[in-house]
Amino acid sequence: MREKIQAVIDKIRPMLQADGGDVELVDVVDGVVTVRLQGACAGCPMSQMTLKNGIERFLKKEIPEVKSVERAD
């Protein structure tokens, strides 16, 4: 499952990089995906919306086993 999640994140990554940010897959446990937002995304006030409405929604659509996406500190 981790490989499938990484492949989907790789599809999302160019959109984040276009705005000066990035995302790194940290862990996957029981359908909960942990990611680390980097670059401009790390300090952006909209990062929680990017995480939930962007990354989480896209991952759930592509991989129904994903329950949620959480941010690593």
The helicity comes to 40-55%
Low-confidence stretches: none
CATH topological fold name: GMP Synthetase, Chain A, domain 3
CATH superfamily: Fe-S cluster assembly (FSCA)
Q: Nearest-angstrom radius of gyration?
A: 11 Å
Q: Rough shape?
A: globular
Overall CATH architecture:
2-Layer Sandwich
Distance between the termini: 23 Å
**Counting H and I runs of at least 4 residues, what is the number of helices?**
3
**Strand order within the widest sheet?**
1-2-3
Indicate the proportion of strand residues. 25-35%
What's the number of extended β-strand segments?
A: 3
- What string, H for helix and E for strand, traces the elements in order? HEEHHE
- What is the top-level CATH class? Alpha Beta
Count of the domains:
1
Q: Helix/strand-derived class?
A: alpha+beta
* Rounded average pLDDT: 94
Major sheet: 3 strands, mixed
